[in-house]
Amino acid sequence: MNHSGAFAVSQLNPLADSNWQDLLSRHPAASVFHCAGWLQALQRTYGYEPVVFTTSRPAVALTNGLLCVRIRSRLTGSRIVSLPFSDHCTPLCQSQEELETLLLYLQKESLCEKRKYIELRPLISLISCDLEKLGFASTGKYLLHRVDLEPSEGELFRRLHKNCVQRRIRHAERVGVREECGNTEKHLRDFFGLMVRTRIRHGMPPQPFAWFRNLLECMKDYADLRVAYLNDIPVAAIISLHFLDKSYFKYGCSDERFHSSGAFPFLLWRVIVKAKSIGSKVLDLGRTDHDAGGLVTFKNHWTSWSNQLNYWAWAPSLNYNFARARTSRLMKNVFGVLPRSVIEFAGSTIYRHFG
Predict the structure, then answer these.
(1) Which of 208, 257, 303, 321 is the most buried (most CB within 10 A)?
(2) pLDDT band of 354, cuts 50, 70, 90
(3) Collapsing DSSP states into helix, strand and coil, what is residue 5?
(4) Are residues 116 and 180 in the same domain?
(5) Contact of 46 with 351, CB cutoff 8 Å
């Protein structure tokens, strides 16, 4: 651990320091995005350097930590993000004073290093007052849906939308949709083919194949890959994650030609059953843009539990809101008309610059 700074802030490598894993086991806001497997996959795929900032003294048990990665890109500049490709990453602090100390230090360091911005993706909205006081601005507003897994399996099924979910699951069972859960090369290739197809529909490139392979390898038993087949044709797939007492629906994709089979609702229900069986209390369905009406409606059919999720950035010399919106629009306009091979290549090369 390296002690430095006027604010008594230290830095540690969360992949090498066992104190970080110990803090995760104790902190109620710890999530899968804080865990070593997720960080290893980010580092292995994109070369990001994970770092934890803390006010705890060196060589003692951690009481707090702000997890970030340092991103260095000739294309998009140097910055600190907590945490790229993660739906949320809450600072693990016990007080507003701890968080303020860490952020002031990070701002000072970023000015010295001439970083373009700092981005935070906290799950807890109660810290917004401190962020605004320190010059952070909201850069994105999303919905976060979660499923309460405490009820019995039968009650969970009864709570699903009758026409849009329950009937589609039963239909998938009747027409012979079958599930395979595994991380073989075939399963991964079938998943990625469906992911490319889905992202093309949305006018965006997929993340590189290496990301999904590394994620499964680094997360090990904490990740499940499920593929649904109809007449041996892969028609839908989901990657779900598990950590402590929570499960996460992270990636989903499908072949639109087989949507009527009900394969995707069938697979998501299987994720719920698995999460319930291993003792998870909550299934996190991930973030959704407010303007993604179809996806919001789909998630509302599974749960009535949703909360606002805000992203924040501090950028002394960058109009961050405008830059992000412009980049998103540009990507959709460009990738919506390119051939599949070009889109796959683009996804394998550009994502590390836009984390």
Answers:
(1) 208
(2) confident
(3) coil
(4) no
(5) yes
CB-based contacts of 60, cutoff 8 Å, min separation 6: none
Instruction: Give the separation between CA 75 and CA 350, rounded to whole angstroms.
Output: 9
Which 3-state string (H, E, C) describes 93-136? CCCHHHHHHHHHHHHHHHHHHCCCEEEEECCCHHHHHHHHHCCC
Amino acid identity of residue 122, one-letter, is: P
**353 occurs within a structural domain:** no
Residue 237's beta-bridge partner residues? 227, 253
Q: What is the pLDDT of residues 247-306, one digit of tens each?
A: 999 999 999 999 999 999 999 999 999 999 999 999 999 999 988 889 999 999 999 999
> Residue 209 sits in which domain range?
151-280
Residues 313 and 249 in one domain: no
Torsion, CA 257, CA 262, CA 268, CA 274, rounded to 10: -130
Angle at which helices 36-46 and 209-219 cross, to 10°? 150
Measured between alpha carbons, how far is 302 from 310 in angstroms, rounded to an integer? 22
